[in-house]
Amino acid sequence: MRCEDLAERITDLLEGDVSPEEEEAAIEHLAGCSRCEVVLAETRDVISLTADHGAIRLTSVDRARMLGAIQAQATTSTGEAQTSE
Length: 85
Ligand SMILES: [Zn+2]
Fold this sequence. Notes:
single chain; binds zinc ion; mainly alpha
């Protein structure tokens, strides 16, 4: 599993909506990739914070920011530098 694959499946992983094989591959990747570990932790925080209010209701801004952060992490790890500002 690559960083991009993990980023794509990250919400499914957190919601338990993946096959045991996918979960195992993700855990294996996370064990050796601190960047994705950080992204996973941050995403989990966002989800648990919003879940406290009874439902996951990300605004489009929150969603864009989160996806941007995940993609930035994935891009960095593949060595394709990208300037966002
Ligand atoms: Zn990774």
